[in-house]
Amino acid sequence: MATTTTTVPQAPTGGSFLLTSAASDDVFTPEDLSEEQQEIARTTAEFAEKSILPRVSEIEAKNFQVTRDLLLEAGKLGLLAVDIPEQYGGLALDKVTSALIADRIAVCASFSVSISAHTGIGTLPVIWYGTPEQKEKYLPKLASGEWVAAYALSEASSGSDAMNIRAQARLSPDGTQYILNGEKMWITNAGFADLFIVFAKIVGDNGNPPQFSAFLIERGTPGLTIGAEEHKLGIRGSSTCPLVLSDCAIPAGNLLGEAGKGHHIAFNILNVGRYKLGAAALGGARTTLRTAVRYAKQRIAFGKPIASFGLVQEKLADIAAGIYAGEALVYRVVGAIDAALSTLSADAPADEVQKRIEEYAVECSIVKVWCSEMLERAVDRSVQIHGGYGYVEEYPAERAYRDARINRIFEGTNEINRLIITGFLLKRAMQGRLPLLPAIGKIMDEVMAGSAPRGEPTGILATEKALLASAKKLGLFCAGAASQKYPTDLQDQQEIMGALADILIEILVMESAILRAEKATARGSAELHIALAELSAARSFRIVQDSAERILGAIAEGDMLRTQMAIFRRLSKHEPINTVTLGRSVAETVIAAERYPL
């Protein structure tokens, strides 16, 4: 497999999308993929089509040998080695390439979960925190697929509240071993993994507080027991088991990273997991659209294919617009991460790599939330298009519907991620790292004085650019109004924080889709890009309006509410576009191609 270097614009400041207006040349889009990246995407898609899809029934039946065989095949193609340094058998490629693989391989959610858990949360901790000896021992096997990794953080009493784990580790009196006790729940790949990244609190008799830490435990270690497979709603072909640690003794050298620094491992890994989950959701939506449109062309009702019906076409167009915006979002964010990492040397310390990725923690959470919910919408529409057949196991729409649900829980629930989105931005503003407070102050002064200019962009997508400008003003206005109502405890108003997050999410999605279409048009590829961006922007702005109304209704009443609603109406005033005609046009293209057409 060829190596590749992504050409990306200069890295923006994380969270700056709300305060600045990016130009199309400032963002990385799927149309910017290098030839090498396109080759890797094709290789991955071919592997998915020819090797994974024919074995879906075996995978879903929990034939884990099939999954192991496919992981070995993926290893031979280099698909497991993208993030691993070359000296340990890896390829050390960019993050866009890593996201591309997660995207194109996602034709079967169960296998997608298995490979993502292995290459992401299972392997990255060793890459970033392992000692040279640990890397030498484990990374070549993980790169080839000879060994499979699993990540064991969650417990019955601590899912999203990761720091509340109860598993404990004690250093033996002679200092040569750690003895672990506790239970882990919902561990992906547990049924066949060879290496477990296990989190526990180091405790002792010296009066020091427990130290949240990570450990490397190999399968077959005495005291490590793998529980029975969970019977799950979806992703049934992936392995999910509890782990039981009963006086499980491991060498002291199997401590991963520093004692008491396990939270760095746990939380830094999640940012990568979130954007890769978003990429995998894109692949799932692309597969779902293909399934839905092929069925819609074959199903005859009232003497003609249901693909000719307007309400079916509306659903197909909505799925396609979601994929388009999702691609623009994912590759913009991952491209920015690559730009931030591009100035580091190959031997840069792991903490500097993590710091630069963490700069985009807000954007990674946005990718995770929006793409997982976009996929949820896509599979729901697919079931509806299939009608009664969508509700039976014989058709793939049913499995896709079940499989999609976990994505809103994985990598931090969408509720937690919404709080991260708003909370991180506010925290950065208070630290002076992001000029959010001056921007809020300026817009509050303008709107209260009745002088907030809407601005009238011109040229391509002028209507959508005007909507985007209005959305940003609404976001700042709502953030300011909420901060005035709750000057010291806004973070405790979760419903308002969540609604603010929804505004921020849709602003980034709107802008990403608009900039992608603008960039594509400059290269001569116009009509479909514009239609998809228009459809996406119209939907995003409706969500911004609804979220703003919820916030204002929650923080004001009487004359103050009437004043704020007058400002809201002025900022959100616009003429709706003809989404019916746009949807029909997009659907016709999708139907002719029998797939996502870009």
Shape: globular
The tally of domains stands at: 4
Q: Do you know the CATH architecture of the largest domain?
A: Up-down Bundle
- Structural class comes to alpha+beta
What is the name of the CATH class of the largest domain? Mainly Alpha
How helical, in percent, are the residues? 55-70%
Instruction: Give a quick account of the main beta sheet: strands, pairing sense, barrel closure.
Output: 8 strands, mixed
Mean of pLDDT: 94
Order of helices and strands: HHHHHHHEEEEEEEEHEEHHHHHHHHHHH
Q: Name the CATH superfamily classification of the largest domain.
A: Butyryl-CoA Dehydrogenase, subunit A, domain 3
Poorly predicted spans = 1-6
What is the fold named in CATH at topology level of the largest domain?
Butyryl-CoA Dehydrogenase, subunit A, domain 3
Strand content: 5-15%
Terminal-residue CA separation: 24 Å
Q: Specify Rg, calculated over alpha carbons.
A: 24 Å
Tally of alpha and pi helices: 19
| Beta-strand segment tally | 10
